[in-house]
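Reading a protein record of the kind used here takes little practice once its layout is understood. The reader may check this reading against the record printed directly beneath this paragraph.
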Amino acid sequence: MKSMTGFGRGVAEQAGLRATVDIRAVNHRFLDLKLRGASVAPAIEEAVASKVRTTIDRGAVSVSINIARSAGGGTSGPTIDPAAAAIAHAQLTALSNRLGLPGPDLALVLAQPGVVSSGERAEDDPPVIPALEAALAQLDQMRTAEGKALATELGARFDELVALRTHVATLASTVPQQLTKRLQERLARLLEGQDTSIDPNRLAQEVALLADRSDVTEELVRLSSHLDQARTLVASAGAVGRRLDFLVQEIGRELNTIGSKSTITEISAAIMEGKAALEKVREQVQNVE
């Protein structure tokens, strides 16, 4: 299990160029990737996006790229292409004569595309990918460390819910007896002072009907299954956030159903505790990849 939040920085140098890549990741339902910083070749940009998508399953990920000359890297400086300058001057002069305007100055000629180059060789691509790999490795370490902490917290919360489920099951097994006693006491109060007896068979039918309406056996079985699956996911590797989020919803649905069927205050109180614990689980699951 990994967290969706983290930070990583990678630096790489090649041919006098230094590439620094910063990656920041926060919670998001899907993978939302944004590239910022220095402009790089489309092929490099696509390679960056592909590598991030391969490494990260979901989250809002911001990749910042910075490219600079490394110290001592040396550079030939800007260079002027005389041939390109001559062609540009000739074309601008011809256009000026046609329009009846003064001839072009040096600044205008130098501003034309292809006349001045930076002096860097085209094949000297900045080492963005090695820097990205280093940043992703650092990000993964942080996300893994936080994921372990989340796993510990979620494991404790699910253990709490398992214990609560066991407690509710114990309470639910006493419901028919409590219903019988409650109904007998109510009838005794109503028939007090009257020469009327209670038909045991009729009483048993009413108790059976009430017990059936309050029976939560199916809900407890499903709740147990959901909790077992959740604890298995917490202990597993890979992206489990979406499945945990689904299970949390299902656990909440079962708790609500049990609470609505409850006929004794002890079960209602236990369900309230369970909902409080589940809400804490829900908050933590939002940060799981």
About this structure: The mean pLDDT is 86. Residues 79-117 form one domain.
